[in-house]
Write a structure and sequence with these properties.
Shape: elongated
Number of strands: 14
Structural class: mainly beta
Helix content: under 10%
Radius of gyration: 29 Å
Mean pLDDT: 86
Strand content: 35-45%
Low-confidence stretches: none
Largest sheet: 7 strands, antiparallel
């Protein structure tokens, strides 16, 4: 095992400013990085992997809260076990953001307390074993949209336009739009103009939900607004 002496682990409350040092250094700390990949099945090719965006980083801390006076603590001024529990539970219940810092490393990340579990292990009452799960906090903003105004009744004497013909799998359509490699819009390709095509697949809820092709062979995915029943 490498020498870990001198390392200090801190949970800094971003609301109150309190810097809480973890009393006993955990034996292992690993940050988990993963991406939100997904797969698509392409006609005549099979399953392919579409790379996604980076997910939130997570870290799990497993250690103990010892009794005051224990010789193996990393901090010079340890708290009572109940004090650590109270402080962490308060941060979690108040939804406070925290900064997780490990000295002598480049680990310094804004996070939230996703899970906190503690108790006694192996009948040993002199220390509390605990697991603290943190998850990266990513700043964001959003704009609340106003409810659209209700449409009034149509005036008498005005003829309504006929509804567009429903498009289903197998329908023959005219395509005016750019082809894409999947229904999410990856891999923009050729532009189809007044092209007569067959609908092979429809995936509701996607940005490019309609897969069009010729004689059963896929050409690409387009928006529903870019196809019209022939």
């Amino acid at each position: 095992m490498p020498d870990r002496s001198g390392l200090e682990f801190y949970i800094k409350d971003q609301t109150t400013g309190e810097n809480l040092q973890i009393p006993v250094n955990p034996s292992d700390v690993k940050l988990k990085y993963e991406t939100d990949d997904h797969s698509e099945t392409i006609v005549n090719l099979g399953e392919v992997n579409i790379p996604g965006k980076l997910k939130l980083v997570g870290v799990s801390i497993n250690s103990v809260f010892p009794t005051v006076g224990a010789h193996y603590v990393a901090t010079k001024s340890p708290h009572k076990q109940a004090t650590y529990v109270k402080k962490i539970k308060k941060m979690q219940s108040k939804n406070h953001k925290v900064r997780f810092v490990v000295t002598k490393t480049d680990i310094s990340m804004l996070m939230t307390i996703a899970s906190f579990e503690y108790g006694l292990e192996n009948g040993w009452a002199d220390e509390y074993a605990y697991t603290l799960d943190l998850k990266q906090y990513r700043k964001f903003s959003y704009e609340k949209k106003k409810n659209p105004k209700k449409r009034g009744r149509s005036k008498k004497g005005k003829k309504r336009s006929k509804p567009a013909k429903k498009i289903n799998v197998g329908s023959t359509v005219s395509v005016n739009g750019r082809l894409h490699a999947d229904s999410y819009g990856k891999g923009a390709g050729m532009y189809e103009k007044n092209a007569k095509r067959e609908v092979l697949y429809i995936v509701p809820g996607r940005k490019y939900p309609v897969c069009v092709g010729i004689n059963g062979k896929a050409r690409g995915w387009v928006k529903m607004s870019e196809v019209k029943r022939s």
